[in-house]
């Protein structure tokens, strides 16, 4: 059983006192609150009677001055009325709806930029009661120090204290600007020897694995361009600097829009899928579970079959 709330002074009297104390005048307080001078005087007297001595004001001819007791009461009353006003304003602005639940998501930067952000509006439309706060990093799940409700990484991996939810499978294949093969043809895999291959320093095995799957493990390109971030390799491909290895999930929209082309769609290599890792303490959280279900549904809609249905190399 909850304890009874301590008795409160008359709220209208508190409001009249705060206005008079802040403005230094019963007359000005009456004007602000749209009541008579006499009403303010009666409310202040009622409050003083309720509180007991000493008095809250010293009454002078044309103004009132707070006593030390009145100043101490004003220091508490003003902020309390401000909080009440702010709470009422939030209630009116939100139509009485509760504030949104905050969901803290940490994801890989390239994945966030190229897959999650373009689709996040769909989740917000479905769940306006959930506010997603997205941060990006590449640390392993168990090395993330900031508080998170959902962490998106490759997998599957096992981390103590986390549950794992797979939602998106992808493959890798070469992609480039459509202007590139117009300048230098890419009719078959051997034509890559006339092109620049774009590498990510964090993924040194991607091109060798794909060339092996394509049957040309010894192919030597005309040039190589190595960049330190994976998303830079995709931007370099979009800019026509060479041919990059594109994960199907992250380049699907560029391929559909014609910003990129896949000259050899029948030769792909698998890569680690994307997984949502939830701290076990958040496993029953409605916002986190709603987000995971949305990830799984959206991942299924994007498809899980390698494009072209051709050669696939396990690694």
UniProtKB/TrEMBL annotation:
<dbReference type="GO" id="GO:0003700">
    <property type="term" value="F:DNA-binding transcription factor activity"/>
</dbReference>
<keyword id="KW-0805">Transcription regulation</keyword>
<dbReference type="GO" id="GO:0006351">
    <property type="term" value="P:DNA-templated transcription"/>
</dbReference>
<dbReference type="InterPro" id="IPR036390">
    <property type="entry name" value="WH_DNA-bd_sf"/>
</dbReference>
<dbReference type="InterPro" id="IPR036388">
    <property type="entry name" value="WH-like_DNA-bd_sf"/>
</dbReference>
<dbReference type="InterPro" id="IPR005119">
    <property type="entry name" value="LysR_subst-bd"/>
</dbReference>
<dbReference type="Pfam" id="PF00126">
    <property type="entry name" value="HTH_1"/>
</dbReference>
<protein>
    <submittedName>
        <fullName>LysR family transcriptional regulator</fullName>
    </submittedName>
</protein>
<keyword id="KW-0238">DNA-binding</keyword>
<keyword id="KW-0804">Transcription</keyword>
<feature type="domain" description="HTH lysR-type">
    <location>
        <begin position="9"/>
        <end position="67"/>
    </location>
</feature>
<dbReference type="InterPro" id="IPR058163">
    <property type="entry name" value="LysR-type_TF_proteobact-type"/>
</dbReference>
<dbReference type="GO" id="GO:0043565">
    <property type="term" value="F:sequence-specific DNA binding"/>
</dbReference>
<dbReference type="Pfam" id="PF03466">
    <property type="entry name" value="LysR_substrate"/>
</dbReference>
<comment type="similarity">
    <text>Belongs to the LysR transcriptional regulatory family.</text>
</comment>
<dbReference type="InterPro" id="IPR000847">
    <property type="entry name" value="LysR_HTH_N"/>
</dbReference>
């Amino acid at each position: 059983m909850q304890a009874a709330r301590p008795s409160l002074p008359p709220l209208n009297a508190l409001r009249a006192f705060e206005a008079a104390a802040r403005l230094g005048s019963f007359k000005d307080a009456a004007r602000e609150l749209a009541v008579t001078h006499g009403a303010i005087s009666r409310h202040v007297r009622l409050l003083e009677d309720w509180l007991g001595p000493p008095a809250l004001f010293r009454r002078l001819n044309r103004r009132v001055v707070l006593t030390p007791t009145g100043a101490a009461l004003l220091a508490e009353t003003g902020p309390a009325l401000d909080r009440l006003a702010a709470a009422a304003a939030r209630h009116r602005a939100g139509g009485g709806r509760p504030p949104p639940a905050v969901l803290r998501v940490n994801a890989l930067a390239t994945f966030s930029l190229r897959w999650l952000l373009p689709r996040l509006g769909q989740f917000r439309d479905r769940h306006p009661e959930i506010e997603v706060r997205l941060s990006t990093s590449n640390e392993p799940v168990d090395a993330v120090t900031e508080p998170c409700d959902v962490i998106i990484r490759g997998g599957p991996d096992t981390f103590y204290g986390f549950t794992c939810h797979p939602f998106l499978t992808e493959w890798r294949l070469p992609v480039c600007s459509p202007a590139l093969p117009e300048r230098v043809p890419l009719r078959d895999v051997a034509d890559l020897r006339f092109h620049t291959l774009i590498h990510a320093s964090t993924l040194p095995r991607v091109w060798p694995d794909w060339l092996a799957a394509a049957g040309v493990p010894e192919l030597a390109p005309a040039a190589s361009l190595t960049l330190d971030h994976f998303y830079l390799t995709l931007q370099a491909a979009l800019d026509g600097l060479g041919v990059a290895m594109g994960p199907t999930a992250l380049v699907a929209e560029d391929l559909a829009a014609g910003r990129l082309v896949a000259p050899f769609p029948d030769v792909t290599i698998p890569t680690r899928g994307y997984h949502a890792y939830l701290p076990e303490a958040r496993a029953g959280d409605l916002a986190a579970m709603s987000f995971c279900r949305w990830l799984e549904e959206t991942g299924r809609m994007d498809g899980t079959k390698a494009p072209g249905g051709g050669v696939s190399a396990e690694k």
